[in-house]
Design a protein that fits this description.
By secondary structure, the protein is mainly alpha-helical. It has 15 helices and three strands. Helix 7 packs antiparallel against helix 8, helix 11 packs antiparallel against helix 12 and helix 12 packs antiparallel against helix 15.
C-alpha cells in the first residue's frame, strides 16, 4: 500500500553503503600495480625495448584501469551493502560467531583484530541470487506499460484510476531497482572472519565505551543498528517481546533509514512528493458517482499533505538525532564551538528517539494517511464497475507511423 516507504528503506541502505565506501578509504591495501612497473621499465629502457614489450606494457595499463579495483580488493558499494546486511561474520576465539556491519568491520580492521577481507566486488556479486534476466524482463514489462499510458494520453483515450495507481507503483519499483542495483540478493552463506582475540579482550581494550551491556552483538558500542523497530519503537511503545538470542545470529531488517541531508535525501523527497502528486492526475477522471470523485480528491490532498508534514517533522528530529543542527551551529559560531558542541552532544545522547511532540503530531497524520491510502486502494477496484466506453479502446500505434 505504501511503496514510498520501501523506497525510503532502499535509499537509506544505499546511503549507508556509500558512507562505508568513504570510511574504508583509509584502509586501502597496497596495490600491486604492474602497470607502474611496466611504465618505469619503459622509461628506463625505452631505447632498447622491443615493439612487443611496448605492446604488453600498454595491455597491462588498460587491464589495470579496467580491473584495478578487483586487483586491489578495493572496498566498493557492493561490499558496503554486503557488510551492512550481515554478510561478514566475526568468529572470535572461544566465543560464538555473530554478524558485523561495515562500521564494526572497519573498527576491527583498523585495530588489527581481523585482516582486511580479500574479496573483490565480483566475488561479492557471485553470492547474490539475483537473476539478471528476470530483472530485465520486469523492466521491459514495466517500460511497455509506461509507453501504453503515454500512448493513451497522446491519443486522448480515457485512463483509469487503476492504471494511474499501477503507474505510481511501477515508478517506485524502477527506482528501487536502481537503488538496490549493487545489493546482493538472498545471500545464504556469510563470509567468516576469524580473530585470534576473544570478545573479552576486545571489549577490555576498547575501554569505558564498551562497558555497557549490549542488546544485539558485543560490538554495539561501535554501531548498535539503531534506529530500528526492535531497539527503539517496541520499548518506547512498551510492547512485550520474548527473550532474544544474544548475540543475534543475523541482523534484523527493521532498521530505519538514516538518509541525512545530502542529494539522496533531496531526491527521495522530490520523488515521494511526485509519487503522491501523481494521484492528482485523476482529479477530473470519470468516476461512477460524484461522491467518489470528491473523496478521491480529498484523499489525494491528504496523502500529499501527510507526506510533506512527515518529511518536515522527521527532518527536524533527524537533525537532532545525528547532531546536524549542532554541527551547523558550530560552523556559524566559531567562538563558542568547543563548549557548545560538547553540551549539545551530551543532551542529544540523553534525548529520546521519539519525543512526545513527534508522537502528538504524527499520530493523527498517520491515521489520516492510512485512511486516505486505504480509500484510494479500495476505490481503484470499485471504479471498475463503471468505466467510460473509451477505456476499452486500445492505442492505435499505426497512427504514430508517418504516412506519405
Amino acid at each position: 500500500m505504501a511503496p514510498e516507504f520501501v523506497l525510503a528503506f532502499a535509499t537509506g541502505q544505499k546511503v549507508e553503503a556509500k558512507k562505508s565506501v568513504e570510511q574504508f578509504k583509509d584502509l586501502e591495501l597496497p596495490r600491486e600495480n604492474t602497470s607502474r612497473t611496466a611504465d618505469s621499465e619503459f622509461s628506463r629502457h625505452s631505447s632498447i625495448q622491443s615493439v612487443r614489450e611496448k605492446f604488453l606494457a600498454l595491455v597491462t595499463r588498460i587491464d589495470d584501469k579496467l580491473h584495478g579495483d578487483e586487483k586491489a580488493h578495493r572496498w566498493t558499494i557492493r561490499h558496503g551493502f554486503y557488510a551492512n546486511m550481515g554478510g561478514f561474520v566475526l568468529q572470535p576465539r572461544e566465543s560464538a560467531a555473530f554478524p558485523i556491519n561495515g562500521k564494526q568491520l572497519h573498527w576491527l580492521i583498523k585495530r588489527g583484530y581481523v585482516e582486511y577481507p580479500k574479496m573483490t566486488a565480483k566475488e561479492v556479486w557471485d553470492k547474490s541470487k539475483a537473476d539478471g534476466f528476470q530483472k530485465s524482463l520486469t523492466c521491459l514489462q514495466t517500460g511497455w506499460f509506461i509507453i501504453q499510458i503515454v500512448g493513451r494520453a497522446i491519443q486522448k483515450l480515457p485512463i483509469t484510476t487503476l492504471e494511474i495507481t499501477t503507474l505510481s507503483f511501477v515508478l517506485c519499483t524502477l527506482v528501487m531497482f536502481a537503488q538496490w542495483a549493487n545489493k546482493p540478493l538472498d545471500v545464504e552463506s556469510p563470509t567468516v572472519l576469524t580473530s585470534s582475540n576473544s570478545i573479552a579482550e576486545i571489549l577490555i581494550e576498547a575501554g569505558n565505551v564498551a562497558s555497557q551491556p549490549y542488546k544485539q552483538t558485543p560490538l554495539d558500542f561501535i554501531d548498535n543498528q539503531t534506529p530500528s523497530w526492535l531497539t527503539e519503537v517496541q520499548p518506547h511503545l512498551r510492547f512485550r517481546t520474548g527473550p532474544r538470542m544474544r548475540p543475534l545470529p543475523r541482523f534484523t531488517n527493521d532498521r530505519f533509514p538514516v538518509i541525512g541531508a545530502g542529494p539522496d535525501a533531496v531526491f527521495l523527497f522530490l520523488f515521494t512528493m511526485a509519487y503522491c502528486g501523481l494521484h492528482f492526475v485523476a482529479w477530473d477522471f470519470d468516476f461512477p458517482t460524484s461522491v467518489e470523485r470528491y473523496l478521491w480528491r480529498v484523499a489525494s490532498i491528504a496523502i500529499a499533505a501527510c507526506a510533506f508534514i512527515f518529511w518536515v517533522c522527521e527532518t527536524y528530529q533527524d537533525g537532532h538525532r545525528l547532531g546536524r543542527w549542532e554541527r551547523w551551529y558550530a560552523k556559524l559560531f566559531h567562538d563558542e564551538r568547543n563548549g557548545r558542541i560538547d553540551t549539545m552532544e551530551k543532551s542529544r545522547r540523553n534525548r529520546r528517539f521519539i519525543p512526545v511532540w513527534e508522537v502528538i503530531v504524527m499520530t493523527p497524520v498517520t491515521v489520516v494517511y492510512t485512511l486516505a491510502r486505504t480509500y484510494i486502494v479500495v476505490e481503484v477496484f470499485l471504479s471498475q464497475r463503471s468505466l467510460p466506453i473509451g477505456a476499452f479502446n486500445t492505442v492505435q500505434w499505426s497512427e504514430f507511423v508517418p504516412h506519405f
